[in-house]
Amino acid sequence: MSVALKAKIADLFEEPACDKNQAKSEKDRKKGCGKQLAPGAAAGGCAFDGAMIALQPITDVAHLVHGPIACLGNAWDNRHSASSGSQLYRTGFTTDTNELDVIYGGEKRLFKSIREIIEKYDPPAVFVYQTCVPALVGDDVEAVCQRACEKFGKPVIPVNAPGFAGIKNLGNKLGAEALLDYVIGTVEPEFTTPYDINIIGEYNLVGELWQVKPLLDALGIRILACIAGDGRYNEIASAHRARVNMMVCSKSMINVATKMQQRWGIPYFEGSFYGIGDMSDSLRQIAQLLVQQGAPDDLLVRTEQLIAVEEARAYQRIEPFKQRLTGKRVLLITGGVKSWSVVAALQEAGLVIVGTSVKKSTREDKEKIKDIMGDDAHMIDNMTPREMYDMLREARADIMLSGGRSQFVALKARMPWLDINQERFYAYAGYEGVIELVRQIDRALSNPVWQQVRIPAPWGDDGETLGMV
User: Fold this and answer.
1) Comparing C-alpha atoms, which of 369, 193, 139, 138 is closest to residue 272?
2) DSSP string, 205-239
3) From which residue to which does the signal peptide run (predicted)?
């Protein structure tokens, strides 16, 4: 690992907004809170994968993976991040390094790849991702990017996040550091307004951002930059002129919010777009901070008027579902902001949360869960598949909401399951998203297939002998 990368990781470990760091002494903070991984040993996603997740939703730039083609195949398009414009981000670019590059170095191949991309596609910028093999060989990606930038007159951004540097979450932050080092603050916006905000840690999964943007538009609030869902290079480069930052997922990009506050004095808060109440609270906090930053006071009144209209309509539309869903028990296996924000949305529909995963949640996330569910909140730190299965089979939950990796546990238990993570096909953000979430839960629970699969087989084997693998 290069000296520069080690220094960058050490800096990230001293993140002042990290809940673990706040409980440590200054000496302990510098020791870090994770260990370097052996190449290929990052279970659940490596640092490179995390960097790609964080930055690939920037839609108009070329994302070039410097490494073996398998790295690109593993990370390409692994989230349903939607774009309202350019589709260049969905094109996979790789240098496809081979054995000769390991022997002689892959810097020339990288430079030629950058040149070919610029000549064929003319993007506003090229993001170059370092992976394990060239990092171990010693390719100087930063020097190649600097040379290409001088040669072709376009920003070429090195993202130094080889997989062995750490886990996926560290990669999220390393990708964000590339934005802070090379992108944010390099372009001035054409104009600014007192209503400019940035949204950080929002990836526009299946178009969720588009369910929130009309609400902000109605208030005259402009999203100067979204980092990174449906993002544009020039918008993100001019993000330093926003008046307020909203942090959607602090687990992935808290370093962007804290460093933008340090460098440009932009205040931030962490909010959620999931649930009627949380959506309203986020609109209120945005309005309050904008007024504190100089926006006209009438913004607060207009915000309350909009909230009153939207909340009344949303509660009216979920009422028919609430009559059938009240009392149904939900097991929520997710993490981060969804560990508490989705809880509030489910409770608004009368659902009972029997447990919510906090494996990827911060201390603030856990405190919010306690505020919503009470001190006896069933927070699950690391539930095994066997424990999930037992909970479902013993009817302590009527449905499980999780990511795709856990769906087979619910299906094996012959219980309904709904995708709540990044692979989903329905948008659940905003007032409209809450209604869609409740509708999908109702459909899953009402599906007649569950009654059919629970009928004992004619030969008397109800499937229990299969057990769990």
Assistant:
1) 369
2) BTTTHHHHHHHHHHTT-EEEEEEETTB-HHHHHTG
3) none
Distance CA 153, CA 270 (A): 37
CA 456 to chain centre: 42
Task: Report pLDDT for 78.
Answer: 63
pLDDT value of position 469: 41
pLDDT tens-place string over residues 399-454: 988 887 788 888 888 889 998 887 788 999 999 999 999 999 999 999 999 888 88
Instruction: Report residue 387 as tokens.
Output: 């424990």
Per CATH, which fold does 3-182 belong to? Answer: Rossmann fold (3.40.50)
In tens, the pLDDT along 134-176 reads 999 999 999 999 999 999 999 999 999 999 888 888 899 999 9
At the second CATH level, the architecture of 318-453 is 3-Layer(aba) Sandwich (3.40)
Domains in the chain: boundaries: 3-182, 196-312, 318-453
Pairing of strands 156-159, 196-202: unpaired
Q: How many CA atoms lie within 13 A of 414 on its CB side?
A: 16
